[in-house]
């Protein structure tokens, strides 16, 4: 078993890595697309909308339902991408966390 000082240092290092990853996730921007790129929605890693781009060919009053569906699809695509990137970053940082926790405890993320 490692000494307490070594474990505390490892825990502090892990905390710093997690905080860095959280900062990177917050700054992350991902773009979801639908309709073959006709609609694009950009979200932050925290899921906040930054931009929406809609091809002018979709601005037809008779096609408003199609446009609405494409916006929803693009938002969902961006959210999925943001979640995947967030999970990848946190998994990379917390991969050694299990060694610091007592048996039976799981990381909270």
State which percent range the strand residues make up. Answer: 15-25%
Largest sheet: 3 strands, antiparallel
Q: What is the structural class?
A: alpha+beta
**How many helix segments?**
2
What oligomeric state is this? single chain
The fourth-level CATH homologous superfamily of the domain at 18-93 is Nucleoid-associated protein YbaB-like domain
What is the end-to-end distance?
25 Å
Q: Which segments are poorly predicted (pLDDT under 50) over 5 or more consecutive residues?
A: none
The CATH architecture assignment of the domain at 18-93 turns out to be 2-Layer Sandwich
Strands, count: 3
- How helical, in percent, are the residues? 40-55%
Label the overall shape: rod-shaped
- Computed Rg: 20 Å
CATH topology of the domain at 18-93: Ybab, Chain: A
Mean pLDDT rating? 84
Q: Main sheet: which strands, in order across? A: 1-2-3
């Amino acid at each position: 078993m490692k000494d307490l000082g070594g474990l505390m240092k490892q825990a502090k290092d892990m905390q710093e890595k997690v905080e860095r990853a959280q900062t990177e996730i917050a700054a992350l921007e991902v773009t979801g697309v639908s309709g073959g790129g006709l609609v694009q929605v950009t979200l932050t890693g925290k899921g906040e909308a930054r931009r929406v781009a809609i091809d002018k060919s979709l601005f037809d009053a008779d096609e408003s339902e199609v446009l609405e569906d494409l916006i929803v699809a693009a938002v969902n695509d961006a959210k999925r991408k943001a979640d995947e990137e967030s999970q990848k970053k946190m998994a990379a940082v917390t991969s050694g966390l299990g060694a610091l926790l007592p048996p039976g405890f799981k990381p909270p993320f």
